Amino acid sequence: MPLRSFGRRTARPGAAGLLTLAALTGAGSAHAGTATAQALPAGCSGTSPITCHYAVSPGTYDVTVSVGGTSAGQTEMWAEARRLMLPATRTNAGATATYSFTVNVRQPEGQPTGQGGTGNPGLDIRFSGTAPQVSAVSVKPASQPLVAYLAGDSTVCDQPAAPYTGWGQMITTAVLPGAAIANYADSGESSGSFLSNSALFPTLLAKVRANDPVFIQFGHNDKQTSASAYRSNLTSMITQVRGKGGVPVLVTPPVRRLFDGNRLTPTALHVNGLGVDLPAQMRAVGAAQGVPVIDLTAQSKTLIESLGPTASAQLYLRSSVDGVTDNTHFSQYGATRIDDLVLQSIRGQHLPLASYLR
């Protein structure tokens, strides 16, 4: 698939508390192995990858970076726990391109319960690629950004280690500055466990402001959840988000790659062990509550069945490529394909995040 298009953006002028481009340019270590050493921005070190760390408090920050430098480069930018902000971008020798993002910073990084590690306090940025180049970095607190919150499970969350990748880690490439993704999804969570864990829904809810969208995807781990309990859990989240002025959005779970011939099985389509068709129940709650529904089950079913049992494997984890076979969790490529489906629905339904998408 083609990469999303990124326009060049101009860094905003400095203000009180701003780590300006000038302040962060030329104060770090130099690239090794170049005829003319190029200094890295302050807080950055290494060559491939280049890692940068800024001791900021949890919150949301506007980040502007200039990639490129004295030699030709190809650079990707990742923030915090493997959130892709800038896909592979080429620059010619002596040229730079400037991009801006709004980044949510949380401690612990990644999954809110600390699965996979707690990361480092502050903001971490990693520039990777075949020849990463970065000449400037600016970080300042964001002023009243739109924050889109994600509530979900391991197919959504910030997975700390490759090859596992949640779609919430890839959707960040599509979001313009002024809006941020706050990914509170957590591995192994059902609708009930997410609702009751103080590190998850209650913590997310406390931060929601007027018009912030909250995307709610559960089903993979509701294997023994009754229809009434599932509907009650979803309805409770909807009511509480609305009480804060937020905009709840239900997302039916993406399919598992479990085929019977050329068609996905009921288990793949999230008919659980009690015979409950969870996506159907979520659609019904959405209709009853007047809440937008992104039917990711139907969208991903169409995608996976169109690819068939063999070609669809690349969206998930394969032993030959990833060292593990897993027909539930996504590869980086698969997470990108799934988040494209989510983005299609956000745009098509004109949800609050739509005006902030590239």
Kindly provide the radius of gyration, computed on alpha-carbon positions and rounded to a whole number of angstroms.
21 Å
CATH domain class of the largest domain: Alpha Beta
Distance between the amino and carboxyl termini: 16 Å
Reported CATH architecture of the largest domain? 3-Layer(aba) Sandwich
Question: Strands across the major sheet, in which order?
Answer: 1-2-7-4-5
User: What name goes with the CATH superfamily of the largest domain?
Assistant: SGNH hydrolase
> Can you give the helix content as a percent range?
10-25%
Give the overall shape, derived from the CA principal axes: globular
Structural class by SSE content: alpha/beta
Describe the structure.
There is one protein chain. The chain has helices spanning 167-170, 191-196, 201-207, 227-243, 278-289, 296-311, 319-322, 332-348; strands at residues 44-45, 50-54, 59-68, 73-79, 83-91, 96-105, 123-131, 134-141, 146-151, 179-183, 213-216, 247-251, 259-260, 263-264, 293-294, 316-317, 326-330. The chain has 358 residues and is α/β, with parallel strands linked by helices. The protein has two domains: 1-142, Jelly Rolls; 146-356, 3-Layer(aba) Sandwich (Rossmann fold). The strands form five sheets. It has a five-stranded antiparallel beta sheet. Strands 10-9-11-12-15 form a five-stranded parallel beta sheet. It has a three-stranded antiparallel beta sheet with strand order 6-3-8, with no helix packed on it. Helix 4 (227-243) runs parallel beside helix 5 (278-289). The longest helix has 17 residues, at 227-243. The chain starts with 43 loop residues before the first strand and ends in a 10-residue tail after the last helix. The model is unreliable at 1-5 and 7-36 (pLDDT under 50).
